[in-house]
Amino acid sequence: MKPKGWKEISLGGLVADAGSSVEYETGTWRSLRPVIDLERCTHCMICWIYCPDGAIQVKNSKVVGIDLKHCKGCGICANECPRKAITMVEESKANAEAAK
Amino acid sequence: MSETYAKSAVRALEGDMVVAEAMRQINPDVVAAYPITPQTEIVQTFSEFVADGRVDTEFIAVESEHAAMSACIGASAAGARAMTATCGAGLALMWEVLWCASGMRCPITMAVVNRSLSAPLNILTDQTDMMGARDAGWVQLFAENHQEVYDNALQAVRIAEHPDVLLPVMHGLAGFVLGHTLGRLEILPDDVAKQFVGQYKPSHSLLDINHPTTFGAYDHWDYFFEHKRQQWEGMNNALKVISEIGQEFGRLTGRYYGFVEPYMLDDADVAIVIIGSATGTAKVAADRMRANGIKAGVLKIRCFRPFPPQALADALKGRKAVAVMERSSCFGGETSPVSAEVCSALYQRSLPIKVVTYIYGLGGRDTVPDEFCQVYRDLLKIVDTGVAEPIFRYLALRDY
């Protein structure tokens, strides 16, 4: 998303829409990316409970992935996962891996 | 001409009560103020208007000046016309929240009864309080006399709430000299004052539950700078708006306002640049010098933020030497807050005028006409010799 200029943004940082936090892509802050091994995951939901950003994506009571637009890379999920199914990977390496 | 102006009542009031009277006419939605020292009679008098039912204002007696400004910000975000008053140490305690008020673009107005800052302990007048807050994003007006206290109080609301400005405004009046002293002034009829000030129409309100809005949210490195740039734009726009409102006020009252006010300046060789209540004394000194054939003048700065460089340069153009009078404790610079602005305005326009700075009147010390006459004589010597040094001087200081 191209950042807006000072003439294009609300005066004084006023946020005129409710629930607009989702538009702020805090994923750009991340230096370490959580990568889930869904083969090891037992869907215990501990990562979902601990994630401070609600970034664990769940469908039909199953963990299906991580919302990388909003995950800040804090690593709490990886630390709490009892199965060690989540590893933190450097963004640059993860991007290189994804490019392959 | 005069019959076309609104018919005013002549009153004798203390400066603090002048502010309270203007606030009564404005009838703000919310006034939050700290009710004891260092507060002045402004809030005491206004709280009586509240108690007597003469205004509809919600009066919040808070526990500190920091809280007073915080409450005003909350009220302003809720869409209220919010006001307060403070002075000296009270303004210093507001420091952090002054920046929140301007950054959130809350058009709060506040009278500041100018006082020194301790230590040594002193509550008498100088402009150290407001000079300290000069970069806080507030428009700053200063009054010379009781009439200007009243006129600034009304205009401040219009300036602050103008959609091109939307910045808080503080208007200063000298502690004791104006604040606690009776003066003559003309007060507009209530309905005329109310009509001039008008209704505040906020663009957004915290209380509008149909359109939930967040004020004062966290701003990261990616947008903070852009939001600050908007504040510079508000200040730039104020340079136009303050003049327009000053002219509109003039058409109503016969008292026209701009950024600076020249006195005997057109043909002056030497001039004093000054802010606030001592301007009248400087004018007396100019008259005395004129009686002795010296072409002396005075330039009063009414609006310090935004600083009006062009108006100042236009007024000083052609003068040979200028003394900038500084009534604040402002340590460490080559000149002073006011003088630095004056020097910049002249330098950027390549005006070859000698400028010296005089610190004067700190902690309520009275400055008398003879002392301003000495300043004029110093300036004449600078013109004669071409030597301005020392450029930083102390007026009527026991230099031993």
Would you mind describing this structure in some detail?
- The complex is a heterodimer of chains A (100) and B (400).
- Chain A is an alpha+beta fold and 100 residues long.
- Chain A has one domain: Alpha-Beta Plaits (2-Layer Sandwich).
- Chain A has three helices and four strands; from the N terminus they run βαββαβα.
- Chain A has helices at residues 46-50, 76-80, 91-99; strands at 32-36, 56-59, 62-66, 86-90.
- Chain B has 400 residues and is an alpha/beta fold.
- Chain B folds into two domains: 2-198 and 208-253, 3-Layer(aba) Sandwich (Rossmann fold); 260-394, Rossmann fold (3-Layer(aba) Sandwich).
- Helix content of chain B is 40%, strand content 19%.
- Chain B contains twelve helices and 15 strands.
- Chain B has a seven-stranded mixed sheet, sandwiched between helices. In chain B, strands 9-11-10-13-14-15 form a six-stranded mixed sheet, sandwiched between helices. In chain B, strands 1-8 form a two-stranded antiparallel ribbon.
- In chain B, helix 6 (146-161) packs across helix 8 (224-253).
- Chain B starts with 8 loop residues before the first strand and ends in a 6-residue tail after the last strand.
- In chain B, 49% of the residues are buried.
The top-level CATH class of chain A is Alpha Beta
Q: What is the residue-mean pLDDT of chain B, rounded to a whole number?
A: 96
Low-confidence stretches of chain A: none
Biggest β-sheet of chain A: count, sense, barrel? 2 strands, antiparallel
Gross geometry of chain A: globular
Using DSSP, what is the number of strands of chain B? 15
Q: Major sheet of chain A: order of its strands?
A: 1-4
How are the strands ordered across the major sheet of chain B? Answer: 3-2-4-5-7-6-12
Shape of chain B: globular
The CATH topology of chain A is given as Alpha-Beta Plaits
How do the SSEs of chain A run, as a string of H and E? EHEEHEH
Average pLDDT of chain A, to the nearest integer?
93
Distance between the termini of chain B: 56 Å
Gyration radius of chain A, to the nearest Å? 16 Å
- The SSE order of chain B reads EHEHEHEHEHEHEEHHEEHEEHEHEHE
Considering DSSP H and I runs of 4 or more, what fraction of the residues of chain B is helical? 40-55%
The poorly predicted ranges of chain B are none
Q: What amount of the residues of chain A lies in strands?
A: 15-25%
How many helical stretches of chain A?
3
CATH third-level topology of the largest domain in chain B:
Rossmann fold
